[in-house]
User: Fold these one by one.
Assistant:
Number 1:
Amino acid sequence: MDSETYIAKTSVLTPHKISLLVLLSIYFETAIEDELLETLLFFLIEKISNEHRFPEPTLREFCDEIHRKTCPLPKVCTEIQRECKSSLEQALLTHLASMESPHDLIELVKDSKKLTNEENDPPLGKYSILGIFVRRCYIESEKLMFDDISRLYNAFVKYKTDKIVMFSKKGKENMDFYYKSGEFSSILSEVSHRYHMCKQDLIAKCDAESFSHYIITQLRKYGGILPPELESKLRVIHKRMPEISTIYYIDYVNCMQSGEYEGALTNFYKYSNFCPEDVENRNWYQYVLLNLVVLHAKFGHKEQALLAIREAIEMARENNDQECLRFALSWLYRLKSNEPTTTKRVDATDQQMLDSLISKAKQSNFIYLQSLGELGNSQRQIQQGASPTDVFESLLRSSILNMNCPFKTMRFQGQLLNASVWQIYGNVALSALYSSEVIGHSDTSPEDLVTAYCQMADLHVSYGNYEQALKLLEESKEKFLGIRRAALQWVVCLEKVLYQRDERASIEALEVQLRGSCQDDEVLHDDFNYNRALYLARIDRPDEAMNLLYELIQKSSRLGSQNQMLVANYYLKLAEIRIDTEDPTSALPYVLSALCISERFHHQSCYFMAKIRLAQILLHFNLAARAKIMIENIMPVILAEHTLRMQSVGHFIYAQCLLGCITLDVKAQREQSIPWNDVLIPLRRAQTGIIMFLLGIRKFDYVYNSLFFSLI
Amino acid sequence: MYNETGTSPTSFEFLTLEEVGVVLRKAVIECSERGLYFAAKWAAETLDGLSASSKGSLESAKMDMSYCSFFTQQDLSTNLDYIEHDKYLLGKSYFDVKEFDRAAFVLERCKSSKCRFLKGYSKYMAGEKRKEEESQDIMGPLDDSKCLNKEIQSLWEEMETWREEGEMDGFLIYLYGLILKQKNPQAKNIKDIFLESVLKYHYNWSAWLELANCVTNKDMMEDILALLPDTFMLRFFRIYLSAELLDSTKCLELISEVQHKFVENKFLQTQTAITYYNNRDYLAAESVFEDIIKSDPYRLDDIDLYSNILYVLDGKSAKLSFLAHMSCHTDKFRSETMCIVGNYYSSKGEHEKAISYFRRALQVNRNCLAAWTLMGHEYVELKNTHAAVVSYKRAVEINPKDYRAWCGLGQTYEMLKMPYYAIYYYQRSSALRPYDARMWLRLGALYEQLSVPNESIKAYNRALQCADIDTNSKEQAALKLESLYGSSDKDKVTEHYSE
């Protein structure tokens, strides 16, 4: 449809449908070859059944399609094929050329009614695909006012003119007819074509609606955002038919995916304005409100989400809509559990609400809600530092429910949570297994996919496999293009990887972009700040790093916060900064805090790291023996289950402990209890990992050199 | 910055109010000439808002005369000052945007002929508009065909005063005639009033049309023609009247006399086509209409007659559909367009749709004769005789000279098996069109039904004398005559057959 053409809307009838009716009449009335009959029939069924094609093909495209199906010389070269017009195509074009006036157009539609209306044995079954199509066209033609018929005629003339004029210019000798644009059958037709025609295209409302429904189905199936070609088609529909509500819904979903809050909100309200066709039926309203809750929650506007959900609950109660009420309650629980609170009583209320939700969902056999409830339960237990047994019990219950749940996202959510939990509890292998399960599935949503990829990349990094981690991130980049939240998560993960590799220049570049993007996103904001603190510490700005960590600790330490577990990490990092920059004594309270919190929350990696740092501090107090015992107790677990980094640091500190013991022996003028070789072994082991991490390489060199000097 | 005249607009500080008045006056005219009626209205309102003193004296007004093309010496001599002229401009601008009451209000105190006419006509139009609004649905339960224009009485009284004072020009007399026609349609002097109007001002075609409406027969026509000077307007009037009175031969003769001077005249072409149509020479009429359309593709006036022709001729549905398409494209809210579309649907046998379009035509123009008549035909097809009778009766009220509606009434009453009524209406129809065999044939049949053989014989004889009788009808009439004459009068039968 070019820009000069006026596009009008119609209910059903379009020039393409006229062509289909012509083909139908050819099928029943014209003598064509038998072998073509079957091909034509299947072709017609295919074209009429295909409700998703938009826009409708031009006559040229339609003829090409007929040609491909019916050309008698399919195997010769394309040049000859083009010249050889199938008899069907010729019949169609002849018929179309003979339809000169609006009267001919309407007569065709009326005559086609005979196909379903004959007294005895009509050629088409009334309820067959073709029969329904014919009847529908007939009914719609009866409903048309004359100016609609005029519009259809205008569009029809434009539809057929290009093809037929082009046709008439090529190889006249091969044709059974000719059509010159200058010749008319009467003065009236000439005057009419000269002065009373305009370039007109028609969009059938039913086609536009079914196309938009099809887009929604595809969106729900595959997620992501619309490709530009589909979006341009929807824009054409939207421009002409703004009353089709599904277009707004598609825009709403698109904006949600790409993180445009304003666009999502505007389209959401437009969708809900156009949505209810039955003004007496108010039941849709509470579902509209639920969607609004999702919208606000997705963009982190909790107050608006809570307002909407309270109204949704009231409307659901008023309309006695139990299903909506349960969804609303589950969302209320989700939102409330993220709220920072100051009293324990609210926690208890939330827990009660969750338990109530699970039991009600069980009663009503809402598997999705039950599973959601169990997942929420697991999360809550992790945050509260419940025993791993309880946590895994909830996760298992959720997994069992997910097997029967129609929502696949729930299954992936469960698996991702499993991966996180195993990572917290220090089993890297199992964590990796769950993440790869999510990655390997074809139905995963982009956000879940990104989370899984980031988890895997994290695991690779923890073993020093930077190349593998970056390769994974590169591979994952294409899978979520345009989805803002997923993109942010990916960038934060990349930053962390680069930080680990000490690529300062790249981190600098990312920092600026990330700062603006993460501001509205609470979860990523904290991750971003933590990464920033690590980075600042690395580039010798420890004070700024510490300030950031203090802020994070303050924010996360509030009672009811879901990030209490992460406070251990923050304390640990503070301790490390203090150890590096100041007197290790000042790091002691932080190490002890980290130790307590990580033990409480079963955060194994943090716990063991805190132990290692404690040993480092004990060394400073010349308590090398105690430090050595401490490391010896934990090293087997670290070596079996934990990251290469932790192993390297553990070996390094152990080597320092051994050195410390030797020093004490030397000072006490005792016999050396530890051979030098025993010191070199852990040192070499540390070297492998430390070289990969470039961790304190200067320090390592210093220690190594000092060791050799002392040996000498 | 310079305007089209090459001068720059004077800045606000230096522009005097007199100059403002001058430019606004000019603006009203120039905008109005270009169809910018709202801009003209604004300029006129702004002009009117200037104080009387600022509008300048008559002397200074004379200097501006050159701008005002419609100022004549006569206006000057009657001391038409700027204030009344400005009022006129204001009133005219309101009239152009169809704010009739407003136009009448601002011209209330004006005394010049033009202003008086505009005031009176605005009031009249306002009254007509309200009458239309009160008339409600076409043929609906609240349809009130006797709704009156409530401004008529006050206008008539006022105009009577002016008439007595002898202060009415041709236009005012025309308006007076319109008012009198509505106030007292049976008044005998309506014709004289319109005659006076055309004598006083010769070129108001609306007055000529009203005069034509008053003429019911050829004798009256001749009497009137004798009183009028032989101008081109008279020739056109004569042509129109001849066509109205179905005097085809005379009409064509008159057209040929003037055609050499008015070569491309659409009115003459149309009258030619109408004459052929009235003569039932449909092919010739079609050919003329085709020429008209070719030269004036966006014309809608009288094109509904062309659709009647295409309807009657066989195999013209495609052309009729083209005509409908063209007229829809031009203006789908004209009564002519709706009549054409109605004819198209009628030709396809979709009578309900046809009726809906004719009703729409009547909603646009309640006095559309063609719509009433054609709607009557459609109701006859649907055997809704009551509605058909109502439609035809409305048609004959609008134009008693249209034989089709009378014929339709006769046909309907014939269907209702009310022969006396049918005879009356066929008689009215045949009086208007005495050489149309169809009416005489119907009359013959009805008289036969009523067992009035003499009258029946006369009617059939009369039918046989008509030139337009077709072969089948001739044979039928002859057979009827034979049976009516009976065996007792074989000479007459023989004489008849020999003829």
Note: The two ends of chain A are 88 Å apart (CA to CA).
Number 2:
Amino acid sequence: MASQTLQSVPAEPSPARHEQSPEDVARRDAEGQAYFDKVMAEDSRIEPRDWMPPAYRKTLLRQISQHAHSEIIGMQPEANWISRAPSLKRKAILMAKVQDEAGHGLYLYSAAETLGQPRDAMMQDLMDGKAKYSSIFNYPARTWADMGAIGWMVDGAAIANQVPLCRASFGPYGRAMVRVCKEESFHQRQGFEILLELSNGTAEQKQMAQDAVNRWYAPALMMFGPPDDDSPNSKQSMAWNIKRFSNDELRNRFVGMMMEQVKVLGLTLPDKDIRFNEETKKWEHGPLDWDEFHEVLAGRGPCNAQRLERRRQAHDDGAWVREAAAAYAGKQLAKQSAKQKEYAA
Amino acid sequence: MSTPETAAPASADVQADPHGGHGDISVGVSGAGASGDGTASATRITPGNALRPEDIALAVSRGTAKPDEDVAELALRLGDDALILAQRLGHWISRAPELEEDVALGNIALDQLGHARSFLSYAGGLDGRSEDDLAYFRGEQEFRSVELFEQPNGDFAVTIARQFVVSYYQFELYRRLAASTDATLAGIAAKAVKEVDYHRDHSTQWVLRLALGTDESRQRMIRAFKVIWPYVDELFRDDELTGRLSAAGAAPLPSSLREDFDRLTGEVLAEAELDVPQVPAARGGGREGKHSEHLGYILAEMQVLAREHPGASW
């Protein structure tokens, strides 16, 4: 539990902030900050109704909504293979997986909404190109083996990133991540299983698996974000107990796990420089093309335009459906209140 | 024909993931033996004692469940209907009007795919073909789906109109099939009917919302029912096969479902202030392998990868 002496200060002041004297506002902010600092020191949790520094709110909103957008855009490369999955069992698993991603998007948008931003507005920012999502989803899923590589490497990297987020200082985010991580772990296993099956299959299947691993390796490693000396926001996020480990630390740990698992697969990673450094007790990997990372991030990846257009198209095609649902709900509500008035009279 | 005891899964088979440890990035395997083991299948993790496609395949391979020729043909018909619908609905995932509908339509697609896998696994028991042999290596004329299931998704209203008809039809069918003298058919239907009941609820809610929402949605809903209704009659046509199955107590006559279907859909349409569309019925013929023009495209896409690698395992 957080402080016994300091009290949480409600996020929404009463009376409203602009009706209070500057002295009252300042005192309130100071009390809120004191409680917040205490929560951080105790590694406890901030909840949506607690006062929080505006920058903390902004950082979380950006991070959680980006995470939600990544889930939604991330559905596309895999949805691309649902209709062509080569067995009915694989089709069922893939459908369930892509559906899980829609579910993750839903929890994450809900967590972000507790910070004061409605889902519609976040979606709009995504479609307007104002909000980012994980760059990895701007690469194409060319073959069936990509379903394996995405599950094993991309979801694997996501888990390595997200398991520490289960302890994030913002309650709704941490709790959403617990469920997300459980499902991601399952996703990673199914990806591994796809690759294992291909690797033990025909020569063509094994080649397909190796090709997919080769293509997804570097983008997966870059999912952890830029190197520590080029990651300006990391330090503050770590001070706020949102981020627990640095980008490079997580990336190195991930490389080590991939190295173990790739042996079981009977495949190789396309990086001759991977080694375990006995002195630092850390895994190391070869150089990554950060220019490509920044290019894709800036919108110049293979599928950026396609992914956003598909999202816009689905949103536009569904506009009349959402309007109908809202109109129907409004009419039902009006009917109910008319009935209640009738009873009252 | 099988007995309920042999078709039902042994309770020891119904184990959750034996590896445990979710939330880490271990792949839960020691050595290369993760695959090829029936218990490693992700789709086996189903709560309760529900009958799963893998259980049916196992019972068929052990010879404890074997359909006769008529039952196998019926299982093929129903399996094909569900498979083609799952293929259609799967297209909505990542394209639905709301995230909640990506999830809902995905769920319905998964349910249908599960029913398809069960029926096809059982149908294959006649001559030793697997669900995948039947799904991926039959040509158009060998499929037994009716035209309704092959109809394109259209806009959301067309998908909902198709879903509405399908779910009320399947509910009446599976409800009766659950009492089949064939224990495996009965087992599949008993599981399916519970799921299809939710599909009825989903489509009913949307018919009401769209019909009574805005002017545009109402016009689209009216049009959608006109698009779909020509394919309703084919669902309820009897033929020699259904005559024999009905006489044996293995399956209801399709025509016997019509009265309840009309009454229950009629109640919803009345609440939605819609009329039953007065449109001529299409001739149909899917049960004899005479399909709509759509089926060829559906199969071309569905089968392409499997056929590029005949004999491969996935």
Note: Chain A has twelve helices and two strands.
Number 3:
Amino acid sequence: MHYLRAVATIALKDLRSEFRSKEAINASLSFAMVVLLLLSFAFDPSSEQAREFSGGLLWLVFAFAGTLILNRSFARELGNDCLDALLASPLPSWALYVGKCISNWLLLMALELACLPVFGIFYSIDWTVRFDGLLLVIGLATWALTVIGTMFSALTVNLRLRELMLPILVYPMMIPALLGAIQLTTDLLAGRPLSADNMLWLRLLVGFDVIYTALAVALVDTVLIG
Amino acid sequence: MREKILYAIGIVTGALLVRNLYVILLQLPDEAKQDAIWRIFCFHLPAAIVSFTGFFVALVFSLIYLAKRNLKWDALAASATEVSFALAIVTLVTGSIWARIIWGVWWAWDPRLTSYFICLLIYSGYLMLRRVIDEPTTRGRLSSVLSIFGFTNIVIVWKSIEWWATLHPGPVLSIRSGGGGRMNPAMESAAWWNVLAIGLLTVMFVAMRMRQEDTRRELDALRRLAHTI
Amino acid sequence: MSAVEVDRVWKYYGDYPALKDIDFKVADGDCVALLGRNGAGKTTLLRIIAGLSRPAKGEVRIAGRDLRELSTRRRVGILGHGIAVYDELSALENLKIFASLYGAADPSRTAMEWLERTGLDRVKDGLVREFSRGMRQRLAVARAFLHDPTVLLLDEPFTALDDRAIAVLQGLLKQARQAGRTIIMSTHQLREALELASHVVLINRGHLGFHGVRTQEMLDDPSWLYRNYGEA
């Protein structure tokens, strides 16, 4: 009960600070728009081919823009030495981590759902056909990005060159999840349902989420307490 | 004592390498389908096997470091990763040269190539992380955690890339269906002898690198001491 | 049972020992001034006692219990260099967060109570970003005290504070002393610290140089301690 309350306190605190300052969400949203636009120059967005690239395109945008949010996650605790106060309080490191994951996941989901309609318009793709499946895939894959990103945000929080290190560490780690998300999203946007054919990728996403959530929860105390 | 063992390994390794080179370059004939280029395989395969083993060894010693918190184990994990990283580059480069001649392209999105490339990216992150942390204890702790995440990821990457590749068209000029597993036994044994030679070479490099790491830590401690005076 | 037990603690940065075999006990109700030159290891030791850093060897117990246990950490309050409150949140929101983390039955009431005690109740909904330096510091003091800690760890508490915040902090520390709370504070301001302290711990380059009762001699001549027990 105490743990639940602690996790909720952290998640709400982060969400509230973010809505007050809007620094991460504004930056990531405008960055997402820029990437969406730039990618349309890379190839003909109205061609049939665009459909085959759609999943990859979308997840590139999500991964790039999402990192801006994840980057801030532990960095926002640095300002007034807040991290020390949190770690000295009766809050286990894993609860701090899970609380931050929840707020990051919600922020990323909001960002991604805001990108979808714009993406649909720019690339004339109907993303509503298999929306329930799409929501499931986006939810699972976003949790994967969140778990990795938040963990590495904690790992790099006290480093010089933090902003440089995070993308170098995070993107290679995200590859399996992104691969699965891309395959599934392309299928769903093309109107193909989740079925035995692509179940493999859904299983990969779930497995990735489970493995890394467990690993991060087990190791985050080692990372935060020197 | 350690010094002498190192020299002994060095001599054995040197002799073994000379012997292997003689066998590979002068004794064995060209391969029927691949001509002379098959010889690169005798370096490609050992580099791949030894580097992968090295990454695994690094994982094991990262775990041991986190359990024991003795920086000796961290130095071993870091040295093993570094040498394996160099071998992984050798693997990719030799593979690429082979691919250029046999497949006609420098790079093909073959599952093994792609996985190895991702592996390289992950461990380049590890090496960079070690560079930006000055304090040895923090460096050991954080890079050990990264090593655990990295190796776990490689296992997942390996599987997922395999699935991904089966869904994609393979390289156009692939002769892989014909090759692989049906090698001339003499050629295969030459490659395995080279696994031993490169394995020993790696052990030597790791031991040397570990020493450097110890010295670096000593220097760091002296610098800290100097600051307090 | 001692309030704080530092049991043969070693801490290394790489091969460099930052703390060497530090061993002392602090009884309930003592107020310890933790002294030493810059880089002697005061902050490192305080961070270990606060549970923010792990010793390489030895351990620290609080009221006989392991430091990392949650029930132990509920007894400890820390006030460090930073104010450890969030700029984008209001004073009330900040205190509510920490009251809730420390398991207060009614976080809002605890928070309001402490805003009144530190004279911040009129600006409770103001964002910390808009506060003056002194107001921020008083809020930081409130944050450190709001769960009524039995052990208080203060790292250089008087250095950055303005007059009013010092007055608030000194008032609270006196109250805490009367209520039998245990205090450990590291500081450069010898005179202020010695006036408040009942005991003194001196650290020289990671060694325990002196541990004992604060005497009249020290109060009369603060440099006496360094002359007799400081590093050679």
Note: Chain C has nine helices and ten strands.
Number 4:
Amino acid sequence: MTNEKLRTLLGGNAAFHYTPGVPDDAPLLEEGVVDSFGMIALVMLIEEQFGIRIMPEDATQERFRSIGSIASYIEAKQNEHPGH
Amino acid sequence: MNILAIDHVQFALPDPMASAALLTRCGYALDFQEPDFNTETRSFYRGVAKSMAYLHRGTSRIEVITCTGIAGRTRYVPMFGGTACPDGLENLPNEKSLDGVIVRARHADRSAIFWQFLGFKPVMPDRFAFPPNMLSMPLNVSLDRNPPQQDADVMADDPGCASVALITRDIHADLAALDQAGYPASEATRFRINGRHVTICFVTGPSSELVELVEFGRT
């Protein structure tokens, strides 16, 4: 569910270079789906769309490496504050 | 505050394109340049047309822009590879990255509170750093408690290491918070650069150190 919403978000914004079929574990920066400016936009869009607050120290390469790792992070954050 | 990361350090220089060329010889890569940008009147730039260039070396990012004001006013001494470079980009150490700034802090205790208000954390006495993350340029901010005598007022295009730019999620909310805390700021200005919408403003710290807030558009 979170993965699909992330894909919709990536596919629906000109800041990203998403094409359908990008695997969940594909590294977004290395694959060129998101560049460094796009990553800033992605962080802000995730906050808006998923109702979470991403602390600066949470924005690590490990957490934001792929659609799968971002989705896991979002779900963990949402579980900290159920109902969002 | 809504600060996410440190974006870059800005230098105001007589010939930014020549300075960009110098930086590329020292290992920085040119990301983009814009001649004669920012021509409309803005309080922080005296309304004079500017040229600018944006460069990076790894995660270290520098913006150079045309200077207008009086030399010797800026509050920052840049550090490359941990070494202070009081001459700015003159005599730049080869193959070193900008990784710190020293604030000539007339009001060091109040400046320490200011930097922490922006989200920086103390890492040593009189030294602060923003929480490391993948969006941020690593940069130590150190306070010099015994600076030389200085003029009170500085502007963003005074020659030298002029400002530290921070990325914010919400520039208007941050301006309100800064105003409430008593830190003066310029108006927020929205424009387009390198194909992207950005909104920027400048905040003045207690020792007249300038901090630029940058909000990037989502598309």
Note: The helical segments of chain B are 16-25, 108-117, 171-181.
